[in-house]
Design goal:
The complex is a heterodimer of chains A (about 90) and B (about 375). Chain A has two helices and four strands, in the order E-E-H-E-E-H. By secondary structure, chain A is an alpha+beta fold. Chain B has about 375 residues and is α/β, with parallel strands linked by helices. Chain B is built from ten helices and nine strands. In chain B, helix 4 crosses helix 5 and helix 7 crosses helix 8. Classes of the chains: A alpha+beta (about 90), B alpha/beta (about 375). Bound molecules: zinc ion (ZN).
């Protein structure tokens, strides 16, 4: 499964975009499960917060949008893994 | 350019998304909001005089305290807010430098709003100031969540601890001030104004605290936040938007300083951190033209605009420009300050909006002036 994460917004407004393919990875099952959970979590619950990061998670042709600080644990772990940056 | 002039809603405990809905309703009238603003101004003038004559402790009764009520929490690298309380108001310094920096910077921010604008905390009614440090792991961000400030440690590779620059903490706290005053909608131009107001007062808080004049100030946002080795001085420059950084990893500072460089994008809530460079630069030009301490006249005009009740939550640059001109005229007459306000907006390519006939407090428009920027 190819998983993409794009981040925008934030105090510094530095955009980040990264993708990975789960094929051949030792954590493939975990990542696929995280992606499934992240994509079905529904839209971010709560108001837009000034300077909060916003994220787009795309896998299997589906895209979920979410925003800090209203992320599920699965969304946060997936974003951290794919972007390779603190989240 | 929208002609929408929903009345400003003055309400201190309803969250912004609810206020947004309310602002469309018919009854929250401008006249009521304006009257309350006048009462507030009168109260502030009285309070200032009392403070001068009998000292801060002499003000009693319902008036908010002249002292902050700060609480700093440690999120311990987790998601849950606010986390564990580690320092309350009046407590001795903690071991943790991030905790102490947040505590001191909240104090400096409270002090600037009080001494420069007679504002008592975020809501002008003594709202306690709450911040959490060490949010998540290596987190490259800080934000205001509607109730409190939240600071990450940075990853140490690109960003250092977000509690380091005083203007960053002032910026976040000012998002609270905006929420409790003009409540500018965080999208597109109104969102860029919301961001700009936070940069303006973030910078003014630093200037006030350091005792720097407009000429001495660096006019940077986030100086000291970039890790060693990153090619940049800061995240934004109000004096020269677009020049704060140029780095292989960060990219190039995308901020325009004039409408000619306005960026249309759906990212970042419609480019709120990008196009904020335009009103940021207008403020810098005004402060530079007036000279002296920027928080005095230039800052007062912006503060009056933010809190005066004439701005719609959906205000565009042209509406905000008109409101600053009206605020300058109301406070200083049609002299140098008023002319400098109009000149600075003109230099960044923004033409003040023509006020609707019933919008109290806005200047009468010169005949023939175009309605759109
Ligand atoms: Zn901001």
């Amino acid at each position: 499964m190819r998983i993409e994460v794009a981040r925008s917004g934030g105090f510094a407004a530095i955009e980040r975009h990264a993708a990975l393919d789960t094929a051949g990875r030792p954590d493939a099952d975990r990542l696929v499960a995280l992606a499934e959970a992240a994509l079905t979590a529904g839209p971010a619950r709560g108001p837009v917060v000034p300077d909060g990061f916003t994220y787009e998670i795309t896998a299997d042709g589906r895209t979920a949008r979410c925003a800090d600080p209203h992320l599920t644990a699965e969304q946060r772990e997936l974003i951290r893994t794919v972007l390779g940056e603190g989240a | 350019m929208t002609a929408d002039r929903a009345p400003a809603v003055f309400c201190t405990i309803v969250p912004p998304h609810v206020l947004d809905k309310m602002s469309g309703s018919a009854d929250a009238g401008v006249s009521g909001a304006a009257r309350r603003t006048l009462e507030q101004d009168a109260l502030q003038r009285t309070r200032r005089r009392l403070t001068t004559v009998i000292g801060a402790t002499g003000v009693t009764g319902a008036a908010a305290s002249d002292r902050p009520v700060r609480t700093i929490h440690d999120a311990k690298h987790q998601d849950a807010l606010p986390g564990r309380k580690v320092r309350g108001e009046g407590d001795k310094a903690a071991e943790d430098a991030s905790v102490n920096r947040a505590y001191d910077a909240l104090g400096a921010t409270f002090e600037t709003y009080l001494k420069a604008y007679a504002r008592h905390s975020i809501d002008d009614a003594g709202l306690p100031l709450v911040a959490s440090v060490h949010y998540l792991q290596d987190y490259n961000n800080a934000f205001w969540n509607g109730q409190q400030m939240v600071f990450g440690d940075g990853d140490g590779r690109i960003f250092l601890d977000f509690t380091l620059p005083l203007d960053v903490i002032g910026h976040e706290l000012t998002h609270g001030v905006t929420q409790y005053s003009a409540n500018l909608d965080y999208f597109g131009q109104s969102g860029a104004l919301n961001e700009s107001v936070s940069d303006v007062f973030g910078s003014l808080i630093k200037q006030f605290t350091l005792g720097q004049s407009a000429e001495q100030a660096d006019w940077l946002i986030g100086a000291g936040l970039l890790a060693p080795g990153v090619n940049g001085h800061a995240l934004r420059s109000m004096k020269a938007p677009g020049t704060a950084y140029d780095d292989p990893d960060l990219g190039t500072d995308p901020q325009p300083g004039t409408m000619a460089g306005y960026v249309s994008t759906s990212r970042d809530n419609g480019g709120v951190h990008i196009n904020s460079g335009i009103p940021n630069h207008a403020f810098y030009l005004l402060a530079a033209e007036l000279g002296g301490n920027a928080w005095e006249q230039a800052g007062q005009i912006w503060y009056d605009t933010l809190t005066g009740g004439s701005l719609s939550p959906h205000a565009q640059f042209a509406d905000f420009a008109a409101a600053t001109a009206a605020a300058a005229k109301a406070r200083y007459g049609e002299g140098d300050q008023y002319r400098a306000v109009l000149a600075s907006w003109s230099q960044v390519g923004v033409t003040p909006a023509v006020p609707s006939p019933d919008s109290a407090g806005l200047p009468r428009q010169q005949p023939g002036q175009p309605q759109e920027a």
